[in-house]
Write a structure and sequence with these properties.
The protein is of the alpha/beta class. About 40% of the residues lie in helices and about 15% in strands. The protein contains 18 helices and 14 strands. The strands form three sheets. Strands 5-4-1-6-7-8-9 form a seven-stranded parallel beta sheet, with helices on both faces. The protein has a five-stranded parallel beta sheet with strand order 11-10-12-13-14, sandwiched between helices. The chain has a two-stranded antiparallel sheet with strand order 2-3. Helix 1 packs across helix 3 and helix 10 packs across helix 17. The chain is globular and about 60 Å long. The N and C termini lie far apart (about 45 Å).
Length: about 425
């Protein structure tokens, strides 16, 4: 963990929270890394603020809570974001101590549940929509008869500790949301095996951030301004085919921890032929992996400068970057799912996808032909690029997803 975050936790421990949350029928939840897009100088949550914007069109203003160890709130955030940093930090500390003393059992935090309960009571929330709602939040909601939903923000797989049956099927309904709001049918299949028998709804609504860029509306100024801005800044005068490299935080199995050495060589060898675009993960800029950005900057300076670009793509909305890309390569990244929905094929290099995670992670889009698991080897990567550089397509049909999403918005705003 970044020492800056450790310092923040220590400082938060002594904070006394005095927050006027206000009232909100719908309460939303997100973390700093879920607010990774900056729009008009404000941190915008691509998934949660998109939902809030659609609720706002129907006259509903939301209160949003920044989860534990978050700093994006108040004036720097796009939404009405608050965080009881003191209460969350103390609850986290006690939870970690409890986990150390009681092994092989979830260290449930009554202190965290009380913090969430106070927020729910003050805001008078009737429904909660958020990314990774904790067991404590779900419990606080169920005790008050409040509907709560988990919004998909990345990969859902059998081996994922938040979503796989081996990790969550043993949880009682008290610890689980009423609904999972997911991007695709492959993600739904993972959850249906254990959540559906518990009476939990799995609603396939698509990735709402992707939907906005895939089928832009004339009145969506954020999308039109963002697309125009990226097109103006994306310098590809030679009209080369463009390849996006999506970087992930806390990656394992690579010598430098940031980008495959084989991929670096491929970029160096082919930079005259292809336009190479690197995109840092939001956590690498602001969050628990921000120390990785310093490693990246040194690596870029020594090995990739003159062969690739990173700043414009990193600061821009991911869908805008994908729409201007012909292929995507990553060690492992949920960008592969978002790319598939926009018709961009991906190569994932992490050897676990050809081993322990085979037929699990990304399996749905792999079967559809949008994701390949490629050996981390110069020749293998080069051959894959040559074979797929002309493969871009329309991607996923969002008509049914959009219909399900509109039904969700109606449910959230019903009297």
């Amino acid at each position: 963990m970044d020492y800056k975050l450790i310092r923040k936790i220590l400082l938060d421990l002594i904070k006394i929270d005095k927050i006027n949350y206000g009232e909100s029928k719908v309460l939303t939840i997100a973390h700093d890394n879920d607010r990774g897009f900056v729009y008009n100088g404000k941190y915008y949550s691509q998934l949660v603020d998109t939902i809030e914007d659609d609720l706002r069109k129907r006259g509903f203003e939301c209160v949003s809570i920044a989860r534990i160890i978050s700093s994006v709130k108040g004036n720097i955030s796009y939404g009405n974001v608050h965080s009881p940093e003191g209460g969350f930090a103390r609850a986290l500390l006690m939870k970690r101590l409890k986990g150390f003393l009681i092994r092989n059992k979830y260290p449930y935090s009554n202190m965290e549940e009380r913090v969430w309960g106070e927020i729910l009571d003050e805001t008078k929330a009737e429904k909660v929509v958020g990314i990774l709602p904790s067991r404590e939040l779900c419990t606080a909601c169920h005790k008050r008869g409040i509907w709560v939903a988990d919004v998909q923000h990345g990969v859902i797989a059998e081996n994922h500790p938040w979503y796989g049956a081996q990790f969550r099927a043993k949880d009682t309904n008290q610890f689980l949301p009423n609904a999972f709001l997911v991007w695709d049918h492959g993600s739904a299949e993972v959850l249906e095996k254990w959540a559906k028998p518990k009476g939990i709804t799995i609603n396939v609504i698509g990735n709402r951030w992707i939907s906005r860029f895939k089928n832009p509306k004339q009145d969506d100024l954020l999308v039109s301004n963002t697309l125009n801005s990226y097109r103006q800044q994306f310098n590809n005068e030679e009209n080369k085919r463009s390849i996006l490299v999506g970087l992930s935080s806390c990656s394992e199995g690579m010598k430098n921890g940031i980008i495959s050495e084989s991929l670096i060589k491929v970029i160096q060898n082919t930079s005259k032929k292809y336009k190479w675009i690197l995109r840092l993960h939001p956590n690498q800029l602001k969050g628990f992996a921000s120390h990785e950005s310093e490693i990246f900057f040194k690596l870029f300076k020594s090995s990739l400068e003159g062969h690739a670009e990173w700043e414009v793509a990193t600061r821009s909305a991911l869908p805008a970057v994908l729409l201007s890309s012909d292929l995507h390569i990553a060690w492992h990244s949920s960008v592969a799912i978002e790319g598939a929905q926009l018709g961009v094929k991906s190569a994932l290099l992490d050897p676990r996808f050809r081993g322990a995670y085979a037929d699990d992670y990304y399996d749905y889009y792999k079967k559809l032909g949008f994701i390949d698991f490629v050996e981390d080897d110069v020749n293998a990567i080069t051959d894959w690029i040559s074979a797929n550089i002309e493969s871009k397509s329309y991607g996923e049909d969002y008509e049914n997803y959009d219909q399900k999403y509109n039904e969700l918005i109606s449910f959230l705003t019903e009297k």
